[in-house]
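Re: the 172-residue chain
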Amino acid sequence: MEDYNLSHSELATLLNISRSMASMVVSGRRSLPIDAEIRIFELIHLMKGNAAPTARKTIPVQNRFDQEIQQLKKRLHRQYVNTTLKLIKMDETIRSYEETYQHASSILMNIEALSPVLAPGSAEACMLEAKRKDKLNKMNRSNEAVRLELRIKKELLLAEANVISQYLATNA
């Protein structure tokens, strides 16, 4: 950050990240979180708008800012594409999970069809029915938890895609 004469603490404050994160970013050990990149983009935009047009020094700085903005836009676009691909994969996962759940449910229901083959009230029939009900209850509880988790993950991906899309659209 020597180019901008900023300390790690000042950088952290500007980008709303911790000082240790700023240090790791500057040293190349970590990449910036997307919200910090967006903050940089906003700061550059602000600086461009408020910079007084002066002699030759402004032109190279302006070009560097434009290059940084373009790089940030490219990264945001790649992030948007990756998020969209994750959404597609999430839809496939949800569909596959639903198919697997339906298949398992039908197997458990088919076990119920075996009950008449066994003597009614026999130990085997009672044990089979108890196991079937237990498996069905466990599967239903697990199914609800998994469905909720998948729905939450999908909503988070949709929110991320929307934020990036709106940001790219308004700052094109």
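The chain has two domains: 1-31, 32-170.
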